[in-house]
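Translate sequence into structure tokens.
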Amino acid sequence: MKYYIIAGEASGDLHASNLIREIRKLDATAEFRCWGGDLMEKQGAVVVKHYRDLAFMGFLEVLANLSTILGNLTFCKRDIIDYKPDALILVDYPGFNLRIARFAHSLKIPVIYYISPQLWAWKQSRIKTIRRSVDKMIVILPFEKSYYAQHGVEVEFSGHPLLDALAEKTASPVFPANGKKLVALLPGSRRQEIRKVLPVMLSVTRDFPEVDFAIAGVSTLGEEFYKELMPDSAIPVVMNRTYDLLKQSSAALVTSGTATLETALIGTPEVVCYKGGMISYLIARQVIKVKYISLVNLIMDKLIVRELIQGELNRQNLMTELNLLLNDTAYRTKMIVEFDRLRELLGGTGASAKAAFAVVNFLAR
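Result follows.
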């Protein structure tokens, strides 16, 4: 069977690569043509567009790159027609993927959506597009199953694939032990967000001379990109070893996104950071319908990790929170206990295998 998969971000590349691996176990004839990244390619997929060329963050950034996005949509539609897939699997990335879902549905190609757009947070009108154009939703957050069922969409909860990814990792220290605490800085995976957040993270490092810091870098951006943002800093940039770095760290400063959930599942106390363009932020405030921005707090439906958003993300607030994470035992312990409850709520390991079975079983029907 021929599968066409579209993942537009680093996290999508990870989860789609695991899905490809598990589908191969169930479908010996499987062929994959994809939009994604290196991890999908390692699983034998033919990658026609890399996610690093697709990630545009914020309303203004999307407008500035509109011609590129429209060109990608046109290319994708032509590529699907030429490839003639037996199924289209969409992984998150809703602005692009929902347009392709409508197109594929018009061609009578079965459309499966793995890792739901965050409709419950904003753009809830998209549920109409999903109901018309998506044949099967496979969701990874427990509350999403009832949300889609209530709206008449065929849905299945597979559990969260991050638990699989973490279970498969064998941790090895990034740095030799030296008796000092280590703090991980996770400034994100997109150039725009890193430029906004990393300077604020770096501003607190001089306030903790007894602590070592390290930046979790993304190799696709290149080490020079990080050096340009920190010309006077000797803080190391660790490429593609985020899990190892988090497991060795006593605390982490994490940009809002999937990384906040990864950090919690590893068990590292964290503070969530977000800073975007002012106009994009003001627009987002008007349309986002949830109390929290971090997946940890959203899934638990209460404040587990502190969120420093926009103006609140400053040196003083970050310094105060990091001091609590490093030195307040009760504060740390309470957060770690909640992280244990979070793992239980997400359904344990085996999520990628469950999702693959859902895909193959649905197509067989």
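Note: The chain has 17 helices and 13 strands.
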